[in-house]
What does this fold into?
Amino acid sequence: MSAPTLALPPAGGTGGGLEARPGRRSSTKSEQGILPLAATLAVAAAIAVMGGLVGAYLALKAATGTWPPEGTEFDRYTATTLVITVLMAMVTVEWAAYGIRKAFRGQSLFGFAITGGLGIAHLNGLAYLVSRFAFGAGDSPYATVVYALCAVAFLVGFLAVAAVVLTGLRAAGHQLGTDNYALMRATAILWHAAAIAWIVAYYTIYVTK
Amino acid sequence: MTLTDTRPAAGAFDDAADDARASIVEHGLTAWIGSGDHKHLGLMFAAFGLASIVTGMVCAFVFQLPSMGDSPLAFVMPGSRLASAGTVATFVVGIPALWIGLATYVVPLQVGGHRLALPRLHNLALWLFVVGAGLSAVAFVIDETRLSSLASSVPAAATEGQAATDAVELLIAGLAVVALGTLFAAIVLLVTVLNRRAGGVRLRHVPAFTWSTFGASLTLLLSTPVFLAGLVLLWFDQHYGGTVFASGAGGLRIWQHELWLLGRPEAIVFTLAGIGLSCDIVATALRRPLIGGPLVPAICAGAPLLALVLWIGGTPALRSPFAPIATVPALVLLAPVGLALLTWLASVRGSAPRAVPAVLPFLAHLLPLAVALALMIAGAASDVTGATESAAFRNGQLVLLCLATPLLGLAAGLVHWSPKLRGRVPTIAASGGVTLLLLAGVLLLGFPGYLAGFGADDGVATIGIAGALVTVLGMLALLPTVVGPAGNAPGDPYEGLTLEWAAASPPVRHNFDEIPPVRSPYPLYDARAAATATGGDAR
It folds into this structure.
C-alpha cells in the first residue's frame, strides 16, 4: 500500500463560492491571509521606525538642559484637529471594509470616498502644520528630530492614502468581493498604521514635549 | 510579462505541453530579471552577495594597500573611504544578501511550498539591494565622504553646521534603499514560513534552518526600521546642517544605537542564525533527528532574536558583541551557542557520523568562534594595558565573529544544499579545498588586529592583505554552487531527513510533484523508519 501524499490542490480549487466576474480572481483561504499578514508586519516595521525616532527624541531630551528650546511655539489646534481627522478615517476605512465584506457596494464606495478625502485632508494639514513651524530643521537637535518625526508620519500617511485610493478604484471596478477581501483588509491595516504614526508623533511632540 | 510566480493551473504538473511552454517563457536573461520564482531569486541574491563580499574585501584591503602602511584596521580604519566602502559592501550588503539568497531558495522547499508568499515584493527587494549598493558605491567614488565613520562607534563625521555634500546624501539614500530591501525580504520570508507551508505541515514540523530564518527575519523586521529611523534623522541633520550628532551624549547614544554599522543587531544576527543551518547539517550527517525535541527549534528561532540585546547598555559603555570582555550581552549571546553544542554532542553519542561534504565547513565555522573566545580571555588576562579595548583588537573580534563565522556557516549551507541549488554534489575534496581557503583567509584577516592589540605592529598589514586575497579565492571557489549550468544530481544524495530532499535536484518549477506525509521536522526519516518497520524499501 502506498503512503498517502499531500498533493497540491489545483489553482482556485478551494476558492469562494461566489460567482466570478470577469477580471476577478477568487483566492484560497491561505492566499487570503497573505496580504493582511504582510501588512501587519509592515505596520510593525512602521511602528519600529517611529519607535526609533521617539527613542532619539527622548535621548536628546534627556541629554539637553532646555527642551524644547526656549521660544518654541506650538500650533496645538491644527495638530489636534489632525488627530481627530485620522481617528475619523480609521472608522470610515472600517466602514468601507464592512461594505466589501457584506457586499454593500454603495456603502463601501462611500466609505472609500470619505476615507480618501479625510486622508488627503490629513496630509494637507500636516504639510501646513510643518510649513508653519517657527524653526528650521537644522536650528537645533530638537528641530531636527521634530522634522524627522513629521516627515515619517507624512510618508506613512501618503502610502496609506495611495493604498486607499487604489483599493477604492479596484472596488469600483468590481475586483473586490466577499471572497476576495484580503486587499481591503491589508489597506485598512495600513491606514490604521498611518493613524498610529501620526498619533505617536503628536503625543511625543505636543503632549510629552 | 516575465513574472513566473503564478500558481500552475490544475493538471499542469502532468502536462508536458505546459512544461514546454514554461521553458519558453522562463529562458533568457529577462526572465531571470523579472522572476518571482524563489529558486531564481535565491540564486541571484546569493550570487550578488558573493560578489559584494569579494568587492568589499578588495576595497578594504587590496585597493588601499598603498595608503595602508602597517595599519591592520582594515574594516574600521578611521577616515578611509575605501575601508568604509568595504565595510558597507561586506557587512551591510554582502552577508545579508548571501543569507537571504540561501533562505529564499531553501525555506519554501523545507516547508513544502511551491513559491514564495509575495514573489514580486521579493523581486523588488533584490533590485533594491542592487540599486542601494550601487548608490553607496557611487557615493564613495565621487567624494571623500564625511560618513566614513559609520563603522566607528563615535560619530567623528558630524557636520557641525555644514551642509551635506552630494556624496553624503547619496550614501544615506543607498543605505536606506538597502535597508528597505532587507526589510521587504524579511517580511516575505516571515509570511512564507507562516502562510506558505504545504497542507499538513504545521509550524512544529518545520526544520531547524527554517526556524532560524524565522528568528533572523523577525530580528531584521524589528531592527532594520530603527536603522531607517536613524538614516532619516541623519539626512535631516546633514541636509540642513544640524547638530544632532555633535550635541554630546544624546547624539552619541543615537549614533551607537541606530547608525553604527557594527553596534546594531544586524552585525551579529547572521552569526546566530547559523545555528539552525548547522542543526540540519548535523542531523543529515548523523542520519537521525537531533536529541532535544522542542529545544532545537527554540534555540534556532531564539538565538537570532537575542541579537536584540545589543541595544542593552549605556553610553559610553555600550558594548558590541566583539567587545572583548564578558559583558551581560556577550554572555546572553553565547548561551544558545552553548546549548546547540550540547545538543549536537548529545546527538552524536552512539552514532557513526557520515562524512557528508558540508561537515568540513560546518566544523570550520565553529573554529573562529572558539579562537575569538580564547583570544578574548587571553586579552583580558594579558599584561598589555588596554589590549582588549583597542580598536585593533576589536577589529580582530569583528572579523572572526561577524565575518568569519557567518561566512563559513553560509559556505557550509551552500555546500550542503548544492545538489538543490545547481544539481551538483560536491566531493569531499572540493568541500575541503573551499573550507581550507576560507578558514585560512579569515584567520589571516583577523589575526593582525589581535597582534596589533597585543603590541606587535610589524608586518601585520601584509598578513591581513594575504588573508583578504585567500578569502577572495575561497569565495570564488564557492561560485559554482550558485552559478553555472545545472547538473543532474540525485534528489536525495545524502539520505536527508528534511522535506527539501524529497524534491528533485535541482527542483522542478513547482518544487514537488507530491509531498510525503509530514508528522515531524524529519518526514523523510519517518518514511524510511516506517518502510523499514514494514520491510519495504528503506528509501
